[in-house]
Write a structure and sequence with these properties.
Largest sheet: 5 strands, parallel
Oligomer: single chain
CATH architecture of the largest domain: 3-Layer(aba) Sandwich
CATH topology of the largest domain: Rossmann fold
Strand content: 5-15%
Radius of gyration: 29 Å
Helix content: 40-55%
CATH superfamily of the largest domain: P-loop containing nucleotide triphosphate hydrolases
Structural class: alpha/beta
Number of strands: 14
CATH class of the largest domain: Alpha Beta
Amino acid sequence: MELILLVEDDEKIVANVALRLREEGYGVVAFRSAEEALAHLRNPHEIEPDMALVDVRLPGMSGIDLIRMVGEAMPPSIVISGEASMAETVEALRLGVRDFIDKPFSRERLLKSVRNCLDDASLRRQLLDLRSREQQMIGRSQALETIRGVIAKVAPTDARVLIRGESGTGKELVASAIHRLSRRARQPFIRLNCAAIPQNLIEDELFGHARGAFTDAKTAKRGLFEEAHGGTLFLDEIGDMDLALQTRLLRVLEDGKVRRVGEAADRPVNVRVLAATHQSLEEFTKDGRFREDLFFRISTVPIVVPPLRERPEDVPLLFTAFLQHFSGRNQRGALSVEPAVLNVLSAFQWPGNVRELRNVAEWLSVFGTDPITVEQLPTSIASGTGLTEAGLVRIPETAQLMPLREFRTQCEKEYIETALRRTNWNVSRAAELLGIQRTYLHEKLSMLGISRRS
């Protein structure tokens, strides 16, 4: 049964609304003042309500003040009022209020708004739960346990964290875990990859712009700092940010205010900033590419994510989790994995780290056959070379040259054998992978002398 918090000082409205809600099977806890509701919401022994109905005009603290003070812990809310000012309306929307109900209101209007609010809250919880499961830090290595311990200590605070590590190690997962375990977990988690957006656009992304600030600015736009208000802003690859923007970012971190491009007034924001990089910011500060004062501001707590090659014991867990995830997404049954496959994967150096392992699992979830065998792995991984087998032919300097026709035939033979190994010698699937007819592939096998024993 969903529990609804009702904050209203009019006794008749309280009785009427509570009756209608209870008739529909909802639980109701009612308070006549915002102060009483605030004490209830801050009491850890009380059951957390699923949503709130809050009047604007209350004795003492207003309903808007209540929503603002509770902040990220406030349940999804609907404002009920007949006299909210424009400023209060704008402030309520900024605080995330789901709907306004004007007094007097009908039973149908009340119940429709309540259902919509509860449905929206339920979908949001499901989405957060799904993202949480997909973004778990999988592994049992000592290095990962150490990181989990640091996250558990730093997450409940507002300390700024600099996450370091090679590309593909999972720095964003660390940032997501910090947000998920923080007091800001119900508020937005906004990501910006500073290396993926042209430098001349990052300022607009971060700070937004006023209407008419430039030629195409036909409407005002909120920046990511405003979008993340109350929550967390994750700046990935912060080392790629140019110096002018670093200066503006430093100012925001110091005074907690942002100014949209083209505006003269500052706007207060409450945002926790997490940053990540695969570069040496210390070296950048020495040669003037990164502000030293900003470096100290963002790196209160450093977390280093080790490369996958330094924690091979995590590879089997990661691979099986990825394979199961993608097999389900691609509507395939569970694929079993031969133990030799996990041994080969654990011994590989993984230059692309977890991202590369994830890609291999996704590929096998599409083209692999049950059980997954070593023969189905990419040759570069099975041989431990780390060289890409498709799209690039690597010829050792000491290799003996041969006639072009012979070389072409040999390349074709090896490429077809690779496709067959990846599909566990399923000719139909190999033909599909190669983009040719199955009968033509059979002809090629005979012509090139390819057999499973070769």
